[in-house]
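anyone else get weird line breaks when pasting these?? whatever heres mine. first is seq + tokens for prot A
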Amino acid sequence: MTTARRSDATRSAILEAARERFAADGYERATIRAIARDAGIDPSMVMRYYGNKEGLFTAATAVELDLPELGALPARHVGASLVTHFLDRWERDDVLTGLLRVGVTNEAGAERMQAIFAGQIGPLAAGVCPDPADAPRRAGLVASQILGMALARYVLRLGPLVEMSREDVVAWLGPTVQRYLTAEAP
């Protein structure tokens, strides 16, 4: 195995261990030593690749939301499409769920989640809302619904929300997200 391949494998092992450890222990309690132990490497390797715990956290929580192209959809389907997309993401992406867990208990996690949602939902909102200047507020409202549902359904596991079918979640949440994105401002 070449040095580059070993380096890539080591980085991948560190990131996987870090994601699991941050999700399980939170930012404050996760340690470089525990992450290194989980990855089967010396702690100095974590520091070599990521500098410090904050650098490792940023790398481990890099999330591309892969948002759907909403401009191509009829306006009346934007909310349902976005809710469906996020249900898919939450159900298959442990990184996003782990980041949400950390984000509700830690300032660095909250800032990371804020940056992801502002940087990725903001431009999406600007592309579909009636007044692009209002996009940041609309993006925040959309995030409140998406993150609220994710917290209740996938982290807190509130029974009635866990038991809801995906279709019911989309039917309930889609119109609210739709209104936030496309309705005239009150």
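and prot B, same format (seq, then tokens)
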Amino acid sequence: MSKLQDKKDYKKENDRYYICALKALKQLFTKTSCAWKKWIETDIEEYLSTGSVQHHLMAYGGMGSINDIWICKVNNHTINDDAEPWANELMECLKCLSYGIAHMIKEDKKINIEKIFAESRTRKILTSIQCKSCGFSEIRKRETDSYLASLLLPKMLEEAVLQNKMEELISVCLVPDIPNLSEERERIIKLAEQSGIGFSESKNSSCKKCGSDTRIKYWKLDGNIFKPY
């Protein structure tokens, strides 16, 4: 019998959100053929049988930890190129959520799920390539979608958790079928161009203006202008 049945009401609520986050991670890893699915299964089994979160917390930190996962075809995961930015941002959000809840359970604190989401922060940084010679910067579709995922997914995750619609959210991210995605992408491209950052469909890493080598450049939105980060 589960040791969770005799808990106080607030602890049962803690359990619900924690198990929801873990099950969502397990589902994401299952659908993408990620080997960490087995680790998350053990997290769930251990918590339901003993109430311990220690196994899950052991997944974080150090070489080869859950923090090193990147879901992509190169790593033999089952996913298409367009879905990679969304799947990885969702994974990051779920890891932060489950890790935060696990610590609150360990400290025997009542979870305020709305506060957790309100205090949640993603970097919201736009990544571009910048020419080492002429300084020209440009973004691609993947970088644009990665930026959009950091903007849109935290709120989408909050709604999915509170409305018990995690399975639907995971499915949406793995297509991806994000509401108004084309319009949002065009908005970011326009803001980037207004900031002197070009957009290219090409996957060539060399500068399209002068052909020189490029490096990574980060940008943060300040009003309606992207500025170097």
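btw re prot B: Residues 123-229 form one domain. The beta strands are 126-131, 137-139, 197-199, 214-222, 225-228.
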